[in-house]
Amino acid sequence: MTIVMIMLAVIGGAMLSIQAAINGQLGSKVGVFKSAFLTFSVGALVTSLLILFFEPAHPVTLLDVPKWQLVGALFGVPYIIIMVIAVQRIGTAVATVAVIFGQLAMSLLIDNFGWLGNAAIPFSFNRFGAVICLGIALCFIYASSVAEKRRS
């Protein structure tokens, strides 16, 4: 089951890159905020249908959870807006790897300290190595993008 979850996460990541590339193009034509609005409107519609037809009943509602947990919904807005802007300027690959670098760095802090109600998973040499490798990958991808722009 772990392999299936990892593969689904990889597919989700691939879909985010496709979304970033499409939204970058759309944002350059109709505007950043209209592109973001479309993303959230369609997402809200699709999610509403999924809730209506597939979500099992839960004893707790959104009104019953600690209010700080609702703040997580706000983090999607800056992500979409940043990606629409960034993809237009630095390309899909650099923007995506930069996002993943930020996700990895923050997730390691959340794991290490057990923030936001998550189980603590101590920082290790292997995790540090992963951050370094991804940072190096970001540098290489960015450098190749800059070199390609100079040739063009």
TrEMBL record:
It comes from Leclercia pneumoniae. Keywords: Membrane, Transmembrane, Transmembrane helix. The chain crosses the membrane at residues 6-24, 36-54, 66-87, 94-116, 128-147. PANTHER family: INNER MEMBRANE PROTEIN YDCZ. This is DMT family transporter. Pfam families: DMT_YdcZ (PF04657).
